[in-house]
Amino acid sequence: MPKTVVILGPTASGKTRLAVQVAQRLHGEIISVDSRQVYRDMDIGTGKDLDEYRVGNQSIPYHLINIVDAGAEYNLYQFQQDFNTVYHQILERGRTPILCGGTGLYLEAVLKGHQFTAIPVNDDLRAELQKHPDDELHDRFRQIPSAYTVLADTSTRKRLIRAIEIATYLTENPSVELPGPVSLPDAVIFGIDLPVEIRRQRITERLQQRLQNGMIEEVQRLLESGIPAEKLIFYGLEYKFITQYLNGNLDYPTMTARLETAIHQFAKRQMTFFRKMERDGFVIHWLDGQQPLTHLVDLTINELQAL
User: Fold this and answer.
1) Annotation-wise, does 11 bind a ligand?
2) N or C: which end of the chain has fewer CB within 10 A?
3) For residue 278, what is the enclosing H or E element?
4) Is 12 known to sit in a ligand binding site?
5) 127 labelled binding-site residue
6) Which of residues 129 and 177 earns the better pLDDT score?
7) Is 14 annotated as a binding residue?
């Protein structure tokens, strides 16, 4: 039996429910790989669904959820360090770590053990880069080849700027020795796949449920607690559009329409990233997300036992 299991998938695919059931069968513990679930008091919008971490009377241990205050700075390097700590603690307890999440960059970083996440942020450089259009940024990145070039993800403007930041640092510090975090080359990766129309239906239904069950009130409380609107907007998706609605910049129908479109686009980008991971050499065992949960659990366990 492999010592590490990964369950990934786009938003609303049911990956948490599957991970919890697999953890119960394997006596495992779940490590969340979600860039927003680390924040306290951001519950509905990030889809923590903590009630799902129970099977009957048994609570399944989970980690890297609710570990920093909303509004605090938290980055990929910090996640990598926190992940390494809890990962080794789980192994020391003789349990199986089960990674569950949809933040592809975080997943890839811990699976490959990227060293480059340790490179510090350069606020002055970022401010200067923000003044340039994307095509100029791509040209600039190509002009500073480094050891990071073949690994860089430049699919979004934010990631492109970070790639330039890393390449610039490596060029200016050619002899730097970066810490080497744990990599997980023997992890077995399962992915939940859904037809696009089913995925879109689930996203739409879940969004309506969350809007009806307090998501707007959650964002209001965060604003009232003193978190600046621009910080919540930076978190994107639900927090961005609901903040704009609460500030009077969007009416309710426009807010919900734009938010729904943005979540659909986000899910598409997630799947694109997972396919990129496959092209980069990761083997993902895809599961049909339309199948009953018990069937998916059995398929996962059987696959693991056969390895």
Assistant:
1) yes
2) C
3) helix 252-279
4) yes
5) no
6) 129
7) yes
